[in-house]
Amino acid sequence: MSNAELIAEAGKIVDVAGKDAPLTVRGLTVSYGNKPAVFSIDASIPAGSMTAIIGPNGAGKSTFLKGTLGVVPRLSGEVRIFGKPFAEARDRVAYVPQRASVDWDFPARVIDVVLMGLYKSVGLFRFWRSRHREQAMECLERVGMADFSTRQIGQLSGGQQQRVFLARALAQNAEFYLLDEPFAGVDAATERAIVAVLKDLKAEGRTVVCVHHDLSTVAEYFDRVLLINVRRIAEGPVDTTFTAANLQETYGGRLATTHIDELRLA
Amino acid sequence: MSFLDYFIDALFLQAGYNSALVAIGAGLLGLAGGGAGAFIFLRKRALVSDAISHATLPGVGIAFILMVAFGGDGRWLPGLIIGSAVSSAIGLLLVEWITRQTRLTEDAAIGAVLSVFFGLGIVLLTIIQTMSSGRQAGLESFLLGSTAGMLISEATTIACAGALAAGFVFILRRPMTLVAFDPEYAATTGINVRYVDLAMMGLALIVTVIGLKIVGLILIVALLIIPSVTARFWTNQVGLMIGIAAVIGGLSGYVGAALSAAAASLPTGPIIVLVAFGFFVISALFSPLRGGLASAMRHWRFQRRVHRRQGLLALARREPIYDGLTLRILRHSGMIRRDGVATLRGRIASQKAARDEARWAMARRILSDDSAVERYDGLTPIEDMMTPDQIDEIDRVILDQNGAPA
């Protein structure tokens, strides 16, 4: 495709979700060294949707998320959050990193981590007030962790750590939530608890995007998918986009045909 | 006057004006070093501060040469501090640049910068020794620190810079905590991680250059790191840890300076570091949270809990108990009577133990890769380690297994 065609196609995508959509990405390329981790990705996430980003290991799913939020530098491309550059829409966005990306032996209690979500609202010099603590406790309540608020974070199980990370994002009271592998290595109860919170967020009109690895739950949890393997393979509603053909194109030989047959596909 | 008398006098600022000055200056320096060092320790960049300190030496030499060349006193402390700050800032930026622009890792960059700058500094000092003008004697005391003949102006400079560093620690405490714990998340909330990292290292730089006179550049890294490591033994909260680190650093500086005032031939820097190490050893042994003694106690209690649990499970399964310690523990806690028959309390506790055991057995099957399962010691009540909905899930699976309607 020529450059002009690419731009024209990207323009069409933008039209689908509207100019002030929570996320509009055009031609995003991020590379580590001289090898692109994601190459020229277009995407557009409509407000109030729940989108799964799917692709094989090393396909650049997490990198795509980090690239949109400026955590890793962009090589090229344009990212708009609610129609603005990310720096201007920061307060409307909450990010939940991978659980394994931090050292859980850090000297902090559960409540301290949730309070980190309120750093913006308390300011540099002032101290925590009881209303901040109440707010943090409410968020812990929503993920079922209120009884663990004074626990040292190193004593938590993997699923509990993930819930604490989600509670910290809830404390930010954002309109757009981006989660990196929230269901990786968590127990069934935690998975249900997190899904319930995410569906609540959607019901409140907020937008959710998750990097997701479990194909068997895509249709159950999400209403949209973005299929990535370094390049964008497909994007759209689960009904029409989460198809055997698209999955085969995304995963190539890594996904057995029998496996695809077992999935609830369109 | 004996050494001890003199030390006690120095400790209570009675050993003369000069010793009091040094002790207070060293205390403030330790306070700033402990506070700033806590973040560097949590960010796992202790070695960078070592590069910063070694990179001060060429600056000291060049500042001395320049001040002599312009006809001034080559040993004027503010001038030497500015010179050392400039050269260690260059060293710090070089480490950063090498790490970002080449494929070298940070430790390799640190090693290169540290040795090259230190080598250059030593060459400059040697040249200065051969210069005819300017009272160059004493410049080498910047290596290991010395407090003999300290001036009031020097002590004031150190105190002001120490207060400045402490103020920075307070203002930047939240961004620095967030960057140390979770830099990626910090970046999304609008914190410039690179600037915060530079500010953190800038703090180490301030502490280093004001500590040159008292502790010396070779050992200043100890004043940044030992208090934080020591504080970590005492608390699981980052705010408290910073406070404790600052207090330990301050005490080490103060007591160390008093000690070296009592025995003038002892170099100040190494004494301060040894005092800090003393605090470390005491903490490593006696901290109730992570200390050696406490963990020995925990092991002792753990053994008793194992016996108690095994006894309770044996009661639940109506098996005979032979182990003398198990019987003693069950008797003492009122679980069984003298004749070995379970009391009401014993029966309730044994049923609870049996239920927990079944739940954990199931948890190990359905949550095989969960860290709670890995850490489970077989003794902790399940309510302490799992949330209510996690326990419900386990119970539901157990019920399914036993064929009861789900």
UniProtKB/TrEMBL annotation, chain A:
<dbReference type="InterPro" id="IPR050153">
    <property type="entry name" value="Metal_Ion_Import_ABC"/>
</dbReference>
<feature type="domain" description="ABC transporter">
    <location>
        <begin position="23"/>
        <end position="255"/>
    </location>
</feature>
<keyword id="KW-0067">ATP-binding</keyword>
<dbReference type="GO" id="GO:0016887">
    <property type="term" value="F:ATP hydrolysis activity"/>
</dbReference>
<dbReference type="Pfam" id="PF00005">
    <property type="entry name" value="ABC_tran"/>
</dbReference>
<dbReference type="GO" id="GO:0006829">
    <property type="term" value="P:zinc ion transport"/>
</dbReference>
<dbReference type="InterPro" id="IPR017871">
    <property type="entry name" value="ABC_transporter-like_CS"/>
</dbReference>
<comment type="similarity">
    <text>Belongs to the ABC transporter superfamily.</text>
</comment>
<dbReference type="InterPro" id="IPR027417">
    <property type="entry name" value="P-loop_NTPase"/>
</dbReference>
<keyword id="KW-0864">Zinc transport</keyword>
<dbReference type="InterPro" id="IPR003439">
    <property type="entry name" value="ABC_transporter-like_ATP-bd"/>
</dbReference>
<keyword id="KW-0547">Nucleotide-binding</keyword>
<keyword id="KW-0406">Ion transport</keyword>
<dbReference type="InterPro" id="IPR003593">
    <property type="entry name" value="AAA+_ATPase"/>
</dbReference>
<keyword id="KW-0862">Zinc</keyword>
<dbReference type="GO" id="GO:0005524">
    <property type="term" value="F:ATP binding"/>
</dbReference>
<protein>
    <submittedName>
        <fullName>Manganese ABC transporter ATP-binding protein</fullName>
    </submittedName>
</protein>
<keyword id="KW-0813">Transport</keyword>
TrEMBL record, chain B:
<keyword id="KW-0813">Transport</keyword>
<feature type="transmembrane region" description="Helical">
    <location>
        <begin position="20"/>
        <end position="42"/>
    </location>
</feature>
<keyword id="KW-0472">Membrane</keyword>
<feature type="transmembrane region" description="Helical">
    <location>
        <begin position="203"/>
        <end position="226"/>
    </location>
</feature>
<feature type="transmembrane region" description="Helical">
    <location>
        <begin position="107"/>
        <end position="128"/>
    </location>
</feature>
<dbReference type="GO" id="GO:0010043">
    <property type="term" value="P:response to zinc ion"/>
</dbReference>
<protein>
    <submittedName>
        <fullName>Zinc ABC transporter permease</fullName>
    </submittedName>
</protein>
<feature type="transmembrane region" description="Helical">
    <location>
        <begin position="51"/>
        <end position="70"/>
    </location>
</feature>
<dbReference type="GO" id="GO:0043190">
    <property type="term" value="C:ATP-binding cassette (ABC) transporter complex"/>
</dbReference>
<dbReference type="InterPro" id="IPR001626">
    <property type="entry name" value="ABC_TroCD"/>
</dbReference>
<feature type="transmembrane region" description="Helical">
    <location>
        <begin position="238"/>
        <end position="259"/>
    </location>
</feature>
<feature type="transmembrane region" description="Helical">
    <location>
        <begin position="148"/>
        <end position="172"/>
    </location>
</feature>
<feature type="transmembrane region" description="Helical">
    <location>
        <begin position="76"/>
        <end position="95"/>
    </location>
</feature>
<feature type="transmembrane region" description="Helical">
    <location>
        <begin position="271"/>
        <end position="289"/>
    </location>
</feature>
<dbReference type="Pfam" id="PF00950">
    <property type="entry name" value="ABC-3"/>
</dbReference>
<keyword id="KW-0812">Transmembrane</keyword>
<dbReference type="GO" id="GO:0055085">
    <property type="term" value="P:transmembrane transport"/>
</dbReference>
<comment type="similarity">
    <text>Belongs to the ABC-3 integral membrane protein family.</text>
</comment>
<keyword id="KW-1133">Transmembrane helix</keyword>
<dbReference type="InterPro" id="IPR037294">
    <property type="entry name" value="ABC_BtuC-like"/>
</dbReference>
<keyword id="KW-1003">Cell membrane</keyword>
